[in-house]
Amino acid sequence: MRRWKHVFKLDPDRDIDDMALERICLSGTDAVMVGGTTGVTFDNTVDLLSRIRRFEVPCVLEISDREAIVPGFDLYFIPIVLNAGDPDWIVGHHHLAVKDFGPMMQWEQIVAEGYVILNGNSSAAKVTRARTELDTADVVAYGRMAERLFRLPVLYIEYSGTFGDMELVSRTASSLEGARLFYGGGIDGADKARQAAEAAHTIIVGNAIYENLDRALETVQAIQDVEKGCL
Ligand code: 1GP
């Protein structure tokens, strides 16, 4: 996880055919993350996991509903929404999940993510009642809280559905000393992938998979170009 540069995020509530899934899994991405905000069930999560498992790519679950926690993933990412207006998304759902599953949890497989949701129109913002009117100093402060106060290994800046402020992302990443900055939102092709990769440690590509698969796949090569320094 600490070396990932590129991740595809697949939503169990959205259809993807076998050919498209194969292209995603063989793309050279560092990992496939399974997660979504609405309509995620145990059944559609199991189904997607079993299809991804035909390939060798690391496959992780980002948990948004404790009814849809499926065994068999490589890692389990748990969002803690630092700017949620509804405290259930900071500690409430987590408390219930650990109450139910605590004795059987494999803690070494669990990665807590400090989320900051910045697109007020996204489903994630609405569900969590996120306070999205934040400037760079606010987000840098959340980053420091995530890393230094709560010792979280990941800060996830989430603009789901729209391309965000790369200056804000870059300045926040620079303020982190050890945590990784994940960026997701509106990466729809190589150009935005390059911009995001220069600002963040890891970029997440979601919606583009379903909107324009060829362009989504180009984001993998774009990251490899950034890595090689051949922009
Ligand atoms: C969503 O951050 C991811 O959780 C990716 O965002 O769907 O806008 O690519 P997009």
From TrEMBL:
Gene3D superfamilies, A to Z: FMN-linked oxidoreductases
Keywords: Lipid biosynthesis, Lipid metabolism, Magnesium, Metal-binding, Phospholipid biosynthesis, Phospholipid metabolism, Transferase
InterPro entries: GGGP/HepGP_synthase_I (IPR039074), GGGP/HepGP_synthase_sf (IPR038597), GGGP_HepGP_synthase (IPR008205)
Positions with a binding annotation for sn-glycerol 1-phosphate: K9, Y156, I157, E158, Y159, S160, G161, G186, G206, N207
Binding positions (Mg(2+)): D11, T37
Enzyme class: transferase
Entry EC no(s): 2.5.1.n9
Stored CDD domains: PcrB_like
Gene Ontology BP annotations: glycerophospholipid biosynthetic process
Subunit structure: Homodimer.
Biological function: Prenyltransferase that catalyzes in vivo the transfer of the heptaprenyl moiety of heptaprenyl pyrophosphate (HepPP; 35 carbon atoms) to the C3 hydroxyl of sn-glycerol-1-phosphate (G1P), producing heptaprenylglyceryl phosphate (HepGP). This reaction is an ether-bond-formation step in the biosynthesis of archaea-type G1P-based membrane lipids found in Bacillales.
Family from the record: Belongs to the GGGP/HepGP synthase family. Group I subfamily.
Protein's name according to its UniProt entry: Heptaprenylglyceryl phosphate synthase
Species of origin: Paenibacillus hemerocallicola
